[in-house]
Amino acid sequence: MKPYWNEQDFEVFNTPGLDARMSALTDIVRPKFEELGIEFSSFFSGKTGNEFFPHVAKHMRRTVNPPNDSWVAFAPFKRGYKAVPHFQIGMWESHVFIILAVIYEAPNKTAMAQNLLHSDVLQQLPTDFTASGDHMKPQSNTLYELGDAGIEKLLIRLRDVKKGEFVIGRHLTREQAASLNKEQFFQFTEETFQALLPVYTALLQPAKEPVSR
Fold it and tell me: Which of 17, 75, 97, 100 could be a cystine partner for 81, CB 3.0 to 4.6 Å?
């Protein structure tokens, strides 16, 4: 059984120097992101009824520090994805992530946070899904570890803090990822995104009014 992800993929992030790491990313990892981009932009287009476009990270703004992670993002806009809720498949040295993210560039994140605070959609997710408030850091906690209070805290920060973010999805350690062949990884990814689609729908609903108590 040939794994879809292998040690060479993860070791890219140990390559010293910006130019050398970018070359390794381009040669080793990016072809997989491009393949995933084609596969899952089609998946999202079919599921949502809106055409989705893949955005493979190019890391063009980096001039000194090499990237510690990379990804392909999915959004219903051809020119960009950061201003809207978007899906991602990506990797750090330690793991692969499959997520839905609202990051600080999103102008409507206050309303989106309010929507999730008024919804039970997150409670419907398996408790091994993870969430965090910073897409720039690899760490996250499972929904079980966070509990309702921890999830609410993340959403309030998303709503009230300019730099607040909300990232939710699933992680595979490098060992777990290396145990899956292409068919198994694609199935795992599709199942994860299928579970996240109701959250995506809730984010895009008209803003909820605060509840009077």
Answer: 75
